[in-house]
Amino acid sequence: MSHGKQFTLFNHKGGPNGWHVAFILEELCLTYESVFPEINMRAHKGAEGLAKYNPNGRIPALIDHGNNDFVIWESNAIVQYVVDKYDKERKISLAPGTERYYTQLQWLYFQSSGQGPYYGQLAWFITYHPEKPQSILDRYTNETKRVLGVLEGVLSKQEWLVGNRPTVADISFFTWNEITVGNFLENFDFEKEFPVTAKWHKKILERPAVKKVWDERARLLAQK
């Protein structure tokens, strides 16, 4: 790939996970080229060539051309790699080896094991599943609200998830919250039900790097 930028990011225009990585690259002023391979959303399977970079056949995947074309996949693994290697000033991350570093990891793991799967299943059953079993919709709706409740409980006691400042831990939750609250929760008032989390969410969107990337996503989606 000869675009001259440091990274190639395999992303999806509508999905949440690749944009989460783009936020971090933008926050750190790292140059990257986005590639949007065809993804079969019903099968959750990408183009055959994507498996060259991600054996799971999905996005995101990142190539670091500044590090011998090192390839890494899974969004929070990518994020951790990028900040450990390139956020030397710790603008949006905590120093490896510190207790707060492991708290940061804790939240990244919770996002990928708690928020992502539950929100994703809710989106799947609403958008793609041919039947709409109410018991399943109720389960994933309730689990989505439970995750928001976890965030609400912690953020009611502190402004940010770790280190008294915004980090990748906070930014990692933005895309799924934004997409799910706006599209998949019926009769839901974010500011009323989870006021502290809604305020925190808004502050993340107001970050220049996040807003720039999210506006770019909206522009690409509008071209469909």
From TrEMBL:
Q: Which GO terms describe its molecular function?
A: glutathione transferase activity
**Per the record, GO CC terms?**
cytoplasm; nucleus
Q: Which residues form the GST N-terminal domain?
A: 5-90
Q: Which residues form the GST C-terminal domain?
A: 97-224
Q: Where are the transmembrane segments?
A: none
Q: Does the keyword Protein biosynthesis apply?
A: no
| UniProt-listed Enzyme Commission number(s) | 2.5.1.18
Keywords in alphabetical order: Transferase
Which reaction is the catalytic activity of this chain? Answer: RX + glutathione = an S-substituted glutathione + a halide anion + H(+)
The UniProt family comment states: Belongs to the GST superfamily.
Query: Which PANTHER family does the entry mention?
Result: GLUTATHIONE S-TRANSFERASE-RELATED, TRANSCRIPTIONAL REGULATOR URE2
* Free-text function comment from the UniProt entry: Involved in the oxidative stress response and detoxification.
Q: What is this protein called?
A: glutathione transferase
Species source reads Phanerochaete carnosa (strain HHB-10118-sp) (White-rot fungus)
